[in-house]
Amino acid sequence: MTNSKCNQHLDAARLTKSKFSLLVSALILSSVTACSLKETEPAEKRDASVVWPKLQLEVQPNAQMEQKIATMVSEMTLKQKVAQMIQPEIRDITIDDMRTYGFGSYLNGGGAFPNDDKHATPSDWIALAEAMYQASTDDSIDGSTIPTMWGTDAVHGHNNVIGATLFPHNIGLGAANNPQLIEQIAAITAKEVMVTGIDWVFAPTVAVVRDDRWGRTYEGYSEDPEIVGAYAASIVRGLQGAADADFLGDERVISTVKHFVGDGGTVDGIDQGDNIASEQELFDLHAQGYVSGLSVGAQTVMASFNSWNGVKNHGNKYLLTDVLKEQMGFDGFVVGDWNGHGQIPGCSNDNCPQTINAGLDVYMVPTAAWKPLFENTVAQVKSGEIPIARIDDAVTRILRVKMRAGLFDKPSPAKRTLSGKTALIGAKEHREVARQAVRESLVLLKNNHNLLPLSPKQTVLVAGDAADNIGKQSGGWSITWQGTNNTNADFPGGSSIYDGIKAQVENAGGKTILNVSGDYAVKPDAAIVVFGEEPYAEGNGDIDNLEYQRGNKRDLALLKKLKAQGVPVVAVFISGRPMWVNAELNASDAFVAAWLPGSEGEAVADVIFADADNELQFDMTGKLSFSWPSSPTQTVVNRFDDDYQPLFPYGFGLSYGDETELENLSEVAEVSSDEPQAIAIFTRSVQAPWVMSIGSDNEQISVASSVLQGETVYLRTVDKVVQEDARRIEFNGKGAGFVRFTSNFPRDLRAAIDSNSALSFAVKLDSELSDEVYVSMGCDIQCGKPLNVSSLLAELPKNSWQTVSIDLKCFSDTGVDFSRVNSPFSLSTPGKLTLSIADVALLPRVDNQQASIDCQ
Questions:
Q1: Bridge-partner residues for 718, per DSSP?
Q2: 429-443 pLDDT tens trace
Q3: Could you say which of 224, 337, 542, 544 is catalytic?
């Protein structure tokens, strides 16, 4: 590390410490000592104390409790212990399964509901919680009376439950920069969760987002650890209570700081990707939420899907054990993320001793894989592959958290203090706090001629497809996982942005016109256009640059139409990240970044309108906690960058009366000067995030071995240039067979089509064609049609490697949506055929390919 780099770390550390006292003084000391650390040292030679602090935890072990736990562990059978470490999901277990195995915990994932009913009532949630609890304490089969606990993703309120209060997503709360408000929000969330009999929430997310292409950007409070560090302590206290007061009392839930660690800093913002930061940067930038959240007593930590310098965090012993548990002193337990253990090399969803040995305490295994995983883990302990001491440590940590939470002493879920008090779900006083959060989260980016606040005594046109759409304004993790397929009726008690505008205007004697497309019979005095991103959650939200509505500027056309008609235009932009909206800014007289405000959309009108006497109701107080990009490709622009040139800097936000006039901005979508990039799919091996599979109409089998036989396809590794760098595929003609590369989530590949790239692959024909052969690309929704490549392949010489190139435009012409590709290559035939493939990639076009299909 150079001296200048060391000085940067020191400056950042001093600044961070001066901004909020929660971060330990070890921050500066560790920045100094790290300057002598070789970042390339292997994990086994690293000294965690060089970078990571020893935390002063507010919740300390209790000697009497520890003795009780030790006695319990000594009396448990191996199966009882392993059962405590298994966390299945409600769609994949029954009450009888709980009675038989006595799982330590279970969860409901996004989009999972009691009775598989989206409109399950609070009573339905309580009934399931009660039944699971009673089954877990029934010792008639498993011999255990240890109570289970239920975990849920309550990430902006109790967001899986119909009628709950939904607060702004974290990006909006970061703009509010109000730790006291955050604690209130967390306390309300805890109450609404407790009403439904649930003990544990997977929050807060303390990711520090460094690349806004990441689909989880809105789950981060900021690009800078300043706000994240302060907020983590506040939300943990709000959820769990203060360590010296009502810690994990009757109105509190167990919290989870997540995802450990570096999830917001992956290369290119790819979800579940690789964070290549130095260890010092990992701490300075990405770990501050853990410093503060753990210090005030967070009892669980969720491991992250991402890798750190190529090593999956779920299997990283240095991070999970040496750093988190031993150096930082965390004595709660580490839970995995959704089958995250299965992503470790050499592991599968049903077999992964590596993650337990690395320091994971609870497998999150939300599929039918829980049963073989249980059996395999028991066998691995018996064989010595997993030391019994590691199992005992994990179970000790789990029981410690349960005892601290009072689960051995509290009544069953249906009989707890708040259980069944359904009036608390979406209570008026809870919604008032949410309205405050919405008001404080709004950031005013433009207000030419001081157009805002508007007088409510006017005729106001309300346009845009987000104006009267509570689902769209709430974003992902709202009733459903992706936040899609919701209507306003799914948010009883909530309000759209239009609802608030209508109430403000009509109560003052004005008139509102709601028309999504901006049409009107009588010219309005002003127009409010509410528009923005469609809801998404992790994976599906990843994009490849920050241009809003790239290739389909329908909202810009609406803004321009109104502006051309001489109507003053107020833009209210709904988004989960800052985006390049220069043209939309130019077409608006005022522009408000409203983020994802949640269920209380009416609060937007509290701020953008004056009262009936034209007096100010609420000022604009929100400030950017994310820098705003100056071009579509300025995807990494963060406070304290060496070359920091955002359009709007971190901390920007106009107040009413500011004299700033925003001049017209460049609408030229500057592109990167770099050469178009290749996208590797298969080069020697399958490249992340793609997964290879074979199959037919009746099956799809992931390729996890060198030889695989399916109903219609046989696949094995062969050598092209080096060992096992190609795959031989034999179609037996007994049905339509395929070999395919897919991703768990759709990928934004518009850059490839924009740069006129081609799908390229090497192929060696080992037999004649007996039927048609097709190459296709696929989306997460049905799109495109297969391309018949039979003629092209038939002309190739046999038994020699040839390169085939197909213009991506060929696929685009059939309807492939390159913004959401989840299968970039599929080869299929109903006939008999033997061939080998290698080197599959999306490549910038190269002339004189040996064989090609040209659709330019």
A1: 726
A2: 999 999 999 999 999
A3: 337
- List 312's β-bridge partners, or say none: 307
Of 166-180, 297-311, 314-328, 735-749, the one with minimum mean pLDDT is 735-749
Q: Quick check: is 538 catalytic?
A: yes
Mean pLDDT, range 615-633, rounded to an integer: 97
Sheet with strand 200-201: strands edge to edge: 105-108, 149-152, 200-201
**Among the listed residues 75, 137, 72, the one whose alpha carbon sits nearest the alpha carbon of residue 103:** 137
Structure tokens at 33: 């000592």
* Rounded-to-integer distance, Cα 149 and Cα 131, Å: 12
Quote the CA–CA distance of 690 and 703 in Å, as a whole number.
11
Q: How many Cβ atoms sit within 10 Å of the Cβ of residue 371? A: 17
Write the secondary structure of 705-774 as one string of H (helix), E (strand) and C (coil). Answer: CCEEECCCEEEEEECCCCCCCEEEEEEECCCCEEEEEECCCCECCHHHHHCCEEEEEEEEECCCCCCCCE
Residue 476: both structure tokens together = 């992902």
Q: Is 784 exposed, middle or buried (0-12, 13-18, 19+ CB in 10 A)?
A: buried
Q: Is 725 a catalytic residue?
A: no
Instruction: Give the separation between CA 469 and CA 484, rounded to whole angstroms.
Output: 11
Distance CA 736, CA 697 (A): 7
The active-site residue, picked from 538, 544, 748, 839, is 538
What order of strands is seen across the sheet that includes strand 526-532? 443-447, 590-595, 569-574, 526-532, 459-463, 511-514
DSSP secondary structure code for residue 663 in this structure: P
670: enclosing H helix or E strand? none
- This prediction has a pTM of 0.85
- Print the SS3 string covering 262-319: CHHHCHHHCCCCEECCCHHHHHHHHCHHHHHHHHCCCCEEEECCCEECCEEHHHCHHH
